[in-house]
Amino acid sequence: MRQTRREFLKTTTLAAGATSVGGFPLVARAQASKVVVWWNKGYYPEEDAAMQKIVKEFENRAKVEVDLSFTAQEDLLKKINAALIAHRVPDVAFCFFNDWQVVPKYAWSGQLADCSDIVSDLKPRYNEKMLAVAHVLNGKTKKRAYYGVPIEAQTMHIHYWRDMLREVGMADTPDKIPMKWNDYWGYWKKAQDELRKKDAGKYGKLYGIGMTESTRASDTLYNFDMALLSHHGEVIDAEGKVVADQAKNKKAITETLKWFGEMFTSGYVPPDATNWTDGDNNAGFHSRLIVMTPNPSQSIPAAQFFNKEDPEKKNYFDNMATIEWPDGPDGKKARYLSAVKTIIIPQDSKNPKLAKDFIKFVVEKERFSEYIKAANGRWFPAFKDVADDPFWRTGHKGPKGQKDLHVPVATTIFLDRENKVFDHWKHPAFSQVYDENVWGKAMARIAIDKWPAEKAADEGIERVKTIFTTFK
Fold it and tell me: What share of the chain is helix, strand, coil (3-state, %, to 5)?
């Protein structure tokens, strides 16, 4: 008679005692033969296929069942929140919003498992500046620990259509784009003007700058925080205390909001950008309705790389490029913010040991390298040994020998530029500031309600102070 999985595990365990297979103790596995994994659905089928392969390998190696489900990021966040509130949780959860909407908040309430042991084992491999994202406060112990395992990151990129610039005789290669603050943004305004002038019928509804300025999109947070960093402003200090109302920072916040407002009201940003979701700037770019767009990942070029309607990948290699954020208004080189994507184990996990084994299995060098490259550079690895793969410095090679003008740009930003993680790890109240999209609301005050930037800044700063003051 054929053995069931349970019978197999039982007999194997009795025979093996405390021995292990592939580093996984069989005794523990016999007691817990299934691990429930909720994973963010990838943007490309290749991403999900790579994770499914890892799961199958883990099942074969550890002799356990993995209940893997993929869910889109917005729905997965709701699912994780509901599960943590109800104490009916998976063993492992990976959502692209974990870093700023789950880790700080639920570590504070004591609902996430301490993963410091995993991080400690992996520390020699880590790009250490990415680790702070998971090193957060537990409100019960009043101590910091790693309440998640960082694996990959995203940062700010600018994507633009080279062929549009060529069409009106403007320089299209990244090294020819002016990088001084005013000249840089003025370049895309000029592109809009020239294209509309050349062919009003074709380009009458084209805009030069696809800048998300809505209360609905997390992209707004990236755009605001990058611009505020360029203006040398801070909302909270190193200790997690609100400093937005200090004169220097209030001035920087006001100048930043004024800049967003003027860009919108001057007619170089699509009028519906105040109502965009995270995918709308991507859609506008792919539809060639905008010349350039800031985007906090490499999802736009990656989508073109996988575009089956362009088998020669002409868009990816010839018609578009990725470029860095400009030098700040003071002329100093751009500084960057990274959002580091993090795996969590809920405190109520039924199989925490097995959950940790699974995470360690996923992030083994060769296995994780294959997984993250399946997304074509959309994410950047948090591990130095994975980032050492030549792919990250050279990217893909075009069918005609063209250079990759996308993946290597991200690598330069992560490894060669000043780059720090977003500040939400410093205090759990900052999660609510992002949840409420405080600065997106301030932008709307200027763009829609016609408020002066000073008034919008005052309201935003007061709201931040209230959130921190009332946080428990």
Answer: 50, 15, 35
